[in-house]
Specification:
By secondary structure, the protein is of the alpha/beta class. The protein has nine helices and 13 strands. Strand 9 (131-135), helix 5 and strand 10 (159-161) form a beta-alpha-beta unit.
Length: 271
């Protein structure tokens, strides 16, 4: 190996070590968290709306009124008053385009640092959009192991779901259209379009149904609804917070931006 290749390989190793140390420093949140005085869009089967959520060890421990959840506090509970903001399940990215855009034709020690750097940027952009899970099944087999290493090092902060949507489902057709689109749209922009735009062949959806495409419906079609997709006890605490209520102001959904994104109760974005 040439001295130049050796230097680049050492740089890649150093990059990975520093990333791991940063991840360890960030990965120690309180094990017991509470978000109160919110409008919690649970996205459960009845689309119930609650006020507060208790999180323990990265999972939803309880959902209910602020008064009910307050009775479950102990000395270790870290409480956040959302003051009327909207809390809902994190979005499952259907297209995978954010990760595809970072891929290089071949992986080598020379390409790992720029690849991981681009994946870090893609993860940060997605977190800013409320994305808490990526579908990775469309990535090639060469890049999959490196992506999972990047996840373990905290370079990619979202969950990686190596799963496929059913071939003929509406969501799979939506995912194909998103991958084929020239411009990458955020989940909220797509939700706005689903809820506000009609065509000769499609009718605009109720806002809650449009939200479900990226939460409950996606989890059900991926057969992971016992873990993700709604805010219910036992499920993973992958959540996002919005300033405004998409149910009350559907026309403004396109311009809404998450204030906070959580994966397993850990903050991966805080505006």
């Amino acid at each position: 190996m040439s001295s130049g290749s050796t230097s680049r390989a050492l740089a890649a190793v150093c990059f990975l070590i520093v990333s791991a140390l940063v991840w360890l420093a960030l990965a120690s949140p309180p094990t017991r968290l509470a978000y109160i005085n919110a409008k919690v869009l649970t996205m459960d089967s009845s689309n119930s709306v609650q006020q507060a959520v208790l999180i323990h060890d990265g999972h939803i421990a309880a959902v209910g009124s602020t008064q009910e959840i307050s009775k479950l506090f102990d000395k270790s509970t870290h409480v956040t008053d959302l003051k009327g903001k909207v809390l809902l399940p994190g979005f499952i990215d259907l297209s995978g385009k954010a990760l595809h855009s970072a891929l290089k034709p071949a992986l080598s020690p020379d390409s790992l640092v720029p690849l991981f750097s681009e994946w870090r940027r893609a993860s940060k952009r997605a977190a800013e959009q409320g994305v808490t899970s990526f579908l990775t099944s469309s990535l090639d087999q060469t890049s999959q192991p490196w992506l999972h290493r990047a996840s373990r090092l905290g370079i990619v902060r979202q969950r990686l779901l190596n799963l496929d949507l059913p071939a003929h489902s509406d969501l799979n057709l939506l995912a194909q259209r998103l991958r084929a689109a020239g411009e990458e749209a955020t989940p909220l922009q797509i939700i706005w379009a689903l809820a506000n735009q009609s065509s000769e062949h499609t009718q605009a959806l109720p806002v809650v149904s449009a939200l479900a495409r990226f939460t409950r419906d996606a989890a059900q079609e991926l057969a992971i609804s016992s873990q993700l997709g709604s805010i219910e006890p036992g499920k993973r605490a992958d959540l996002l917070v919005l300033q405004d209520d998409p149910l009350l102001n559907p026309v403004a959904i396109r311009d809404m931006q998450p204030l906070l994104t959580l994966v397993g109760g850990q903050k991966i974005y805080n505006r």
